[in-house]
Specification:
This protein is mainly α and about 250 residues long. Helix content is about 80%, strand content about 0%. Strands 1-2 form a two-stranded antiparallel sheet. It is elongated and about 75 Å long. Pfam families: Myelin_PLP.
């Protein structure tokens, strides 16, 4: 065999083995969970922020005539929008830290780079991340449930509008079909009109603002679900990586 060819083949083999070791050291579970978290948070925060803005516009246009009737709702919406800004920043940084921690503790990386002896500090840090991720997952479960409330409101509104469209030949019964924003706590009980009935409600459901707001809340709800799935995946992968750390030879 030609010595030049033999040297080139050995070099290619060495490069291939190096690439395989590098790819083998990637914590794929943590990487997938991080991508899910990024996409879920982006969907939840982006769509949720715009949906809140459109909700304020709908309430102002069709359910309240006086500024004092919905000023409290406007302040609450503004507060939640600021919370969304904070959530987006926090989860962006936290997911990056979790991915870095996944690279550090993955058992595949230990096999790739040889014998690994974890320090007590490293194990405590990994355990802290597991506890934090568990707490975040429980708290985010509440956010996931809370994000279903506007979807439920718009679903009921859409169902009422569909009933009105079916009963268009009986105007008397149509006017009895209403959606009262005051019943959902969006407006005070003395707000005027506070509700939309009959063909007025049907016309509201046919507007572009209504359809877009409904779709945005559904997307935000889906984003919250994706984020919850990402946190559960992060918790599971971090726990598996911690369990794979060697139990003996731990340095103090």
């Amino acid at each position: 065999m030609c010595p030049h060819f033999h040297g080139a083949a050995s070099q290619l083999t060495g490069c291939y083995d190096c690439c395989m070791r590098c790819l083998g050291g990637v914590p794929y579970c943590s990487l997938v969970a991080t991508l899910l978290c990024f996409s879920g948070i982006a969907l939840f925060c982006g769509c949720g922020h715009q949906a809140l803005t459109e909700t304020e516009r709908l309430i102002e246009t069709y359910f309240a005539r006086n500024l004092q009737d919905y000023i409290t709702l406007a302040y609450i919406i503004q507060y939640f929008q600021y919370v969304i800004y904070g959530l987006a920043s926090f989860f962006f940084l936290y997911c990056i830290v979790l991915l870095a921690e996944g690279f550090y503790t993955t058992s595949v990386a230990k096999q790739t780079f040889g014998e690994f002896r974890s320090t007590m500090c490293g194990r405590c840090l990994s355990s802290s991340f597991i506890v934090m991720t568990y707490v975040l997952a429980v708290l985010w479960l509440l956010v996931f449930a809370f994000s279903a409330l506007p979807v439920y409101f718009f679903y009921n509104m859409d169902a009422t509008c569909h009933t009105i469209d079916v009963l268009t030949e009986t105007p008397a019964s149509i006017n009895q079909l209403c959606v009262d924003a005051r019943q959902y706590g969006l407006l005070p009980w003395n707000a005027v009109p506070g509700k939309a009935c009959g063909m007025t409600l049907s016309n509201v459901c046919k507007t572009r603002e209504y359809r877009m707001t409904y779709d945005l809340y559904i997307a935000a709800f889906a984003g919250a679900g994706i984020t919850l799935l990402a946190l559960v995946s992060d918790y599971a992968s971090a726990g598996a990586n911690l369990a794979a750390l060697p139990q003996r030879g731990i340095q103090q």
